[in-house]
């Protein structure tokens, strides 16, 4: 199969090239002028096909074992750094740890001892001995059982740290993964582990460093030791299928460490087989003496007198209610955390006789205990300054409400991971959102400014031309954003309190109050330039003259155009409200629908507002509509409309091609822009042929379309029209293809030190800015080169002069490039995250900057960090706090697994 991939793309390319050559020969025989366009088309198509064939013929696998060695070493560093930081945040790196004993449960829940090789026991405060016992297992397969809060996940994390600290080059890399996202009925174990590794450790997707499919190859070659946490979080049917998949992996020699609650695991064994050749250990309830020794050590000396009643109860009543509750390590940690502050009395722990009630009270008291609000906690030398600052930054009632919302969101999405790039799923899409509305207004303003800059160029130059362009663009942008917020009727599931609570009459008055000064600004600029601009001839039949009231006409025309835009928004929103919202349908088509809608807004601004500007600035003597001669009015309107269409079509094709090439996708895992060249120069050269070929292919396609759409006066032959269109679009495609190659090369999944949520967010912000540059650079660079080379001078041929005059001004190219860049940037994860944050902040469900709150909650041990995502410290705390979250009508429920795309 690999050999076939090396030859069949070249066969397709050669056959297509021969067909093109035959077409060129036939075209040249029709006349010399047709040869220009035909030759341009053949060059573009040939380069594109060659790049495509060369790219398709590349081998897909890693180049050799050296790639896997580098990948394994990088993975070990990332996992070690991740869990070392997390263990320090949870206090597990302290010199003293609670001694949780683990006994063998081979006879109750395990396989035959002769298949396992030996039994395993150990203590959580002696991890070197426990890791040595695990390494002594012939198959290195282990199942860790226990009740809720018994320390299963903690033991798994400590074991991962110990195995990494003492790992040799020949040993597999332990990787801790949460099983809650695995569906054994739909995804194999190997495929799921590889996918999760790429999500949690995006650097493995860097093909230049580690080759293609590095994660899958590492798992397939048994160079990864999967530590699978939470088998009990799967449903009964999936749990049985999961055990069967684990046994199939064991038959192929894969090691593993598995954690599960004892009850759920025992239920699964009634219908499924045991985990083959795996040692089984189960937690032993913590002894009162161990808890007593632990508390005496971790409690500050000055706080020991306050804890003396609790310590005395444990010492005198080792079988009492408090000792029974503290037999669960989770309760010990909760008690120590809640009553660590000097203002809390630990003697309150003696009031409860029921361990479940005591745990519930401790869970409820956790948030008020760690978040102090505006009142700083007393300066305790044992508490780091960062923790004190985090505790004082948020009020307890705020923190509880936000955590409750996050817990409800995780429940609705059936996941345990708080990923910042997935927060958008908490809300249905809203085209009139706090960032989407300004984006729509910007596209409308850039469309109008793009056309207005052309017409100001007829009259003015220099700073006056730039000022006119900026006034039209900024005024239209502000008005468009405001109308988008006020005229768009949201779905019933979408809540926008700032808009929906205002009366309709008040909103209408606000709209008129905003349009009047903005329209006056546009009218004043156009009126001033119409009076001071030279009245020169534009063509043989169009004579420029001063309109009697240009400013008033321009302001009224612009205002009428904005009111028409508002009416169209209202009609569109009412239509969209009737279409049922489904998450999977939105996920599959939203990128293209969004791009098409924004391009239509750009066209509307160019077609209506830009054309109104042109017709008011250019007058033709004679009776008729608005004092203009009717025949010339129709001719000018047709001329302006065709120019607006050419710009809109170019915008649409550029945006659609970039979306097809998946330059942006806000649902993908976070990425990063890295322009460091050492060791990656060859990778850039490898990407250039295919990307440049795709750009030239785009140029050939645009040339064919533009030869029909571009306004011509007088109309030359078809050969000149196609040749001019091909020359323009091919040069633009060349710049675009080169830029795409650089962007693809620089956009890597992550760096080795980019393992935290904050770092991934900063990396995605760079991608957002890079998308803006990707859109702006090609048209501006092509315009700069054309002006520097003087391609529009009379001495050049008609083909050269025609394609050079299409976008003559810098303002026009800048407007077009910004429009492309904004559409692309709006599809990044950073844009979606920021808008989601603003919407949730308006609903008081999260702070304006959730990442700061999440990081503070992690410092306070309420959340934990797993790779680039956060999780709640314990599922019992998540379930308990979610009861305080309201049922939000705006949170879409996930579709059944059978319907998910």
Based on CA inertia axes, which overall geometry fits?
A: elongated
Number of helices: 34
Structural class category: mainly alpha
Q: How is the biggest beta sheet arranged?
A: 7 strands, mixed
Distance between the terminal alpha carbons, to the nearest Å? 29 Å
Helix residue percentage: 55-70%
Strand order of the largest sheet: 2-1-7-3-6-5-4
Strand content: 5-15%
Question: Based on DSSP secondary structure assignment, what is the total number of beta strands?
Answer: 11
Q: Which regions are unreliable across 5 or more consecutive residues at pLDDT < 50?
A: 1-10, 26-41, 56-63, 535-545, 584-588, 620-631, 885-901
Mean model confidence by pLDDT: 76
Please tell me how large the radius of gyration is: 34 Å
Give a description of the structure.
The structure is a single chain. This protein has 901 residues and is mainly α. The chain has 34 helices and eleven strands. A seven-stranded mixed β-sheet has the order 2-1-7-3-6-5-4, sandwiched between helices. Strands 8-9 form a two-stranded antiparallel ribbon. Strands 10-11 form a two-stranded antiparallel ribbon. Helix 11 (236-251) links the parallel strand 5 (224-229) and strand 6. Helix 23 packs antiparallel against helix 24 (550-576). The chain starts with a helix and ends in a 19-residue tail after the last helix. Mean pLDDT is 76; it is low at 1-10, 26-41, 56-63, 535-545, 584-588, 620-631 and 885-901.
């Amino acid at each position: 199969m690999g050999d076939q991939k090396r030859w069949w793309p070249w066969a397709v390319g050669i056959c297509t090239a021969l067909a093109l050559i035959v077409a060129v020969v036939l075209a040249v025989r029709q006349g010399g002028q047709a040869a220009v366009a035909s030759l341009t088309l053949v060059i573009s198509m040939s380069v594109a096909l060659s790049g495509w064939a060369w790219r398709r013929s590349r081998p897909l696998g890693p180049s050799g074992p050296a790639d896997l060695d580098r990948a394994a070493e990088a993975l070990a560093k990332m996992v070690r750094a991740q869990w070392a930081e997390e263990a320090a945040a949870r206090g597990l790196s302290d010199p003293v740890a609670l001694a949780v004993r683990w006994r063998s449960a081979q006879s109750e829940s395990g396989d035959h001892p002769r298949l396992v090789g030996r039994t395993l026991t150990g203590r959580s405060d002696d991890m070197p001995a426990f890791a040595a016992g695990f390494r002594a297992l012939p198959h290195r397969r282990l199942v860790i059982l226990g009740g809720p809060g018994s320390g299963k996940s903690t033991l798994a994390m400590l074991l991962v740290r110990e195995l990494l600290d003492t790992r040799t080059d020949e040993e597999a890399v332990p990787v801790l993964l949460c099983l809650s996202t695995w569906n054994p009925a739909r995804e194999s174990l190997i495929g799921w582990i590889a996918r999760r590794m790429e999500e949690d450790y995006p650097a493995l997707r860097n093909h230049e460093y580690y080759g293609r499919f590095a994660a899958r190859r590492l798992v397939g070659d048994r160079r990864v030791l999967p530590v699978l946490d939470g088998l009990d979080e799967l449903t009964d049917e999936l749990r049985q299928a999961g055990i069967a998949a684990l046994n199939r992996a064991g038959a192929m020699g894969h090691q593993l460490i598995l954690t599960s609650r004892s009850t759920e695991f025992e239920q699964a064994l009634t219908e499924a087989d045991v985990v083959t050749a795996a040692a089984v250990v189960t937690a032993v309830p913590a002894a009162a003496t161990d808890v007593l020794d632990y508390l005496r050590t971790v409690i500050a000396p000055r706080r020991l007198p306050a804890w003396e009643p609790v310590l005395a109860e444990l010492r005198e009543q080792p079988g009492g209610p408090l000792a029974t509750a503290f037999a669960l390590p989770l309760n010990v940690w909760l008690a120590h955390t809640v009553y660590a502050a000097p203002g809390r009395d630990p003697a309150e722990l003696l009031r409860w006789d029921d361990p479940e009630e005591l745990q519930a009270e401790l869970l409820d008291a956790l948030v008020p205990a760690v978040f102090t609000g505006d009142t700083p906690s007393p300066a305790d030398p044992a508490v780091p300054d960062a923790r004190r600052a985090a505790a004082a930054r948020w009020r307890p009632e705020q923190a509880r409400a936000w955590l409750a919302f996050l817990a409800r969101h995780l429940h609705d999405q059936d996941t345990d991971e708080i990923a910042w790039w997935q927060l958008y799923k908490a809300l249905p899409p809203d085209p009139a959102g706090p960032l989407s509305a300004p984006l729509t207004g910007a596209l409308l303003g850039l469309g109008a400014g793009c056309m207005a800059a052309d017409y100001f160029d007829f009259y003015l130059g220099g700073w006056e031309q730039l000022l006119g362009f900026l006034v039209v663009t900024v005024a239209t942008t502000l008005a468009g954003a405001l109308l988008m917020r006020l005229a768009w009727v949201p779905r019933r599931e979408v809540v926008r309190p700032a808009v929906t609570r205002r009366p309709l009459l008040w909103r209408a008055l606000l709209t008129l109050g905003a349009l009047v000064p903005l329209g006056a600004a546009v009218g004043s600029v156009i009126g001033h330039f119409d009076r001071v601009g030279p009245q020169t001839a534009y063509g043989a039949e169009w004579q420029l003259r001063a309109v009697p009231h240009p400013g008033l006409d321009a302001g009224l025309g612009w205002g009428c155009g904005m009111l028409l835009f508002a009416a169209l928004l209202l009609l569109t929103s009412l239509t969209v409200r009737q279409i049922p919202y489904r998450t999977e349908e939105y996920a599959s088509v939203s990128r293209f629908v969004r791009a098409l809608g924004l391009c239509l807004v750009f066209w509307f601004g160019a077609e209506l507002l830009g054309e109104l500007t042109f017709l008011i600035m250019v007058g033709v003597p004679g009776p008729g509509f608005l004092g203009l001669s009717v025949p010339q009015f129709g001719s000018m309107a047709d001329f302006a409309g065709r120019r607006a269409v050419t710009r809109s079509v170019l915008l649409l094709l550029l945006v659609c091609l970039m979306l097809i090439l998946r330059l942006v996708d806000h649902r993908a895992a976070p990425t990063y822009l890295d322009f460091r060249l050492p060791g990656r120069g060859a990778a850039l050269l490898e990407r250039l042929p295919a990307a440049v070929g795709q750009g030239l292919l785009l140029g050939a396609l645009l040339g064919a379309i533009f030869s029909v759409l571009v306004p011509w006066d007088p109309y030359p032959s078809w050969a000149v029209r196609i040749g001019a269109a091909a020359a323009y679009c091919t040069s633009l495609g060349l710049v675009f293809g080169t830029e795409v190659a650089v962007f693809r090369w620089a956009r890597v999944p992550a760096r080795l030190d980019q393992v935290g949520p904050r770092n991934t967010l900063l990396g995605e912000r760079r991608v957002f800015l890079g998308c803006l540059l990707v859109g702006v650079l090609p048209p501006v660079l092509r315009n700069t080169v054309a002006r520097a080379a003087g391609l529009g001078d009379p001495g050049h041929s008609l083909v050269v002069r025609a394609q050079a005059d299409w976008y003559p001004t810098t303002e026009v190219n800048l407007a077009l490039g910004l429009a492309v860049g904004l559409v692309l940037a709006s599809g990044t994860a950073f844009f979606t995250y920021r808008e989601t944050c603003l919407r949730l902040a308006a609903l008081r469900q999260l702070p304006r900057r959730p990442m700061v709150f999440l990081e503070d909650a992690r410092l306070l041990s309420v959340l934990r960090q797993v790779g680039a995502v956060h999780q709640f410290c314990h599922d019992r705390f998540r379930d308990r706090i979610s009861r305080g979250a309201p049922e939000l009508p705006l949170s879409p429920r996930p579709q059944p697994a059978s319907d998910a795309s």
